[in-house]
Amino acid sequence: MRFIPHGINEWLFSFLRLVIYFSIALCFIIYMVNMPNTTYSGPFKPLSESELLLKDYLKKHVYMLAEKIGERNIRHYNELNASADYIETTLAGLGYNVSKQEYKIENKTLKNIEAELIGTSKPGEIIIVGAHYDSVTGSPGANDNASGVAAVLEIARLLSKEKFPRTLRMVAFVNEEPPFFQTKEMGSRVYASRSYKRKEQIVAMFSLETIGYYSDEPGSQHYPFPFGSFYPDTGNFIGFVGNISSRKLVHNSLASFRRHTPFPSEGLAAPGWFIGIGWSDHWSFWKEGYPAVMITDTALFRYKQYHTINDTPDKIEYKKMARVVSGITSVLKEIAIDGI
Prior knowledge:
single chain; alpha/beta; eight-stranded mixed sheet; 8 helices; 39% helix
């Protein structure tokens, strides 16, 4: 059996085959990275009065979770419960009827926490925005993921007086980090499995995962192969990431963000097995067949303090985070009114 072509015809055939394979691969990559509208580039206007207030509240939540409470996981169970209590109290103070989904591991009670705005005309169509409130072992978890939890709490505040045709749920998940990551004991997996068993019609799920760090330094952004050639090398944007089945949700939510928000943004819809694509609570909803998107600053591909003791509240860019959260809120409002 030989592998080296012999003769001009075999060489031409081999070359043509390589061209075809390369073209197919390139077309598929373009299919994954091609997104609607264009990202924002340019100077920022000063924060509005409401955005300044949002910035202050975001900072307050992050400092409470990551500094005053600190590391929070099943090995730091009291701190995990203190975080849950803070989230419940904050949501209840906004006027929500807070519900909890409890389950046990190692004889310890763990809980997902939910607040809900029931839809007026299409309550069966459910939109979820969520974030995990546990931190990895050895880290206070400011960006990962007090930033996401702070955003969920502030979205709940901003929308607390609103009414939408579709139901909007704000959920704080437990147990996203190892050793529970992508297991049946992951909080969002427990939640999504229950939703499937209840036959809930979740039309969109947004996982807010490390959304607080940005850099204007060239070379500050990195990517897993093969995406480095298709995206900027400056880590100043927010990313919308989904699997192929969630491509429509990625496109529509990113297009909405770009219409409403003068902030750099990028999107990707790729197979879930690509490195980083499924690295948060949205993965749990994919497992049940629901469309789900991660909104992220790309975590370890930009943030050097990821999963370290140095992931502290002073690393967060609160002004930029406020712009991002304001934009996400607009996306949620549009989808809650118009659908996907």
